Amino acid sequence: MATPAPSLGCRVNVGCGPAEQRLLLTGLHSVADIFCQSCKTTLGWKYEQAFESSQKYKEGKFIIEMSHMVKENGWD
């Protein structure tokens, strides 16, 4: 059995910006950027609201872009 991933909602080192509407590949969504509290790098976004019924399952979920998850000079 797989262990579920921890919720970003309880992490103190990740911030969430204001929600804004964006037209994504899967339709119109209200999303908020999530970012590192330490360096302010945008890590991805949180789906706040989906406007199409087929996309409602995304609400409250996070997308983290892997390109922002590796720090080249270490984690000092």
UniProtKB/TrEMBL annotation:
Keyword match Zinc: yes
Domain of life: Eukaryota
Single GO MF descriptor: metal ion binding
Alphabetically ordered keywords of this record: Metal-binding, Zinc
Keyword Transmembrane: no
Domain named Yippee: residues: 1-73
InterPro entries in UniProt: Yippee, Yippee/Mis18/Cereblon, Yippee_fam
Coiled-coil ranges (or none): none
Classification via PANTHER family: PROTEIN YIPPEE-LIKE CG15309-RELATED
Similarity remark: Belongs to the yippee family.
Stated name of the protein: Protein yippee-like
